[in-house]
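thread from #wetlab-drylab

HS: before we spend reagent money on co-crystallization trials with flavin mononucleotide, can we at least see a predicted complex? here's what I'd submit
DV: go for it
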Amino acid sequence: MNTLQQFLNQRVSYHVHELSLPAPNTQQMTDILQAAMSTPDHGKLKPWHFLVIKQTRIEELISLLQTAWQQSNSELDPQRAKRLASYLKQAPSIVLVSAEINEPSPISKQDQVFSAAAACQMILLAADALGFGGVWYSTDAVELPNVRQLLGLQNKHQPVGFLVLGSPISKREKARANVSDHSFEWLGAANVSPWGETKSANQERLK
Ligand SMILES: Cc1cc2nc3c(=O)[nH]c(=O)nc-3n(C[C@H](O)[C@H](O)[C@H](O)COP(=O)(O)O)c2cc1C
């Protein structure tokens, strides 16, 4: 196995409590985000928007999210707001990744969102390659009242990932699933009758 394969196979997420300063500096952050420019991109739309939130702004972000949570009439669990605040409090830096949706476009919105999600993974890998670590968190809090506006997001932005980036406090390894549980070989349509019934399995585990 070559070094790059080892790097990919050993990638792990580092949750906020496993990260500390330093966060990537501005040049390093630019280098990390540059890697996302090589993300697969249907129609060359570059449907990506990266909002960097430096550590010095995180307190402000937390209070903004907490206020939004209180104002929201939805049935959102207040414990989630607390958990989110305690996550973010420890974050060395955050990149909010959004799909920047081109509409109208012959390229589906779904493909554009997938591309932005793939950009998240490019960013996490690039951060790892520079010796940093990170984690991908959900962005549902961005849909709380006023949050989009206060973050400067427009209607065309669809958030896909809150990436927390920083320095792992200690490196760790993780046992991974066996790929053979997830990989199959298609054995052809001949095993399916014309009315759609499978006569015998037309997939088997990839050997
Ligand atoms: C779209 C997406 C959203 C996620 N949101 C959260 C989240 O809100 N909270 C969380 O603990 N993990 C979340 N995760 C999972 C972590 O990013 C991470 O993948 C998981 O903890 C497993 O760690 P690993 O990547 O080292 O296997 C999310 C992952 C994805 C792809």
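DV: The chain has six helices and seven strands.
HS: ok that's useful, forwarding to the group
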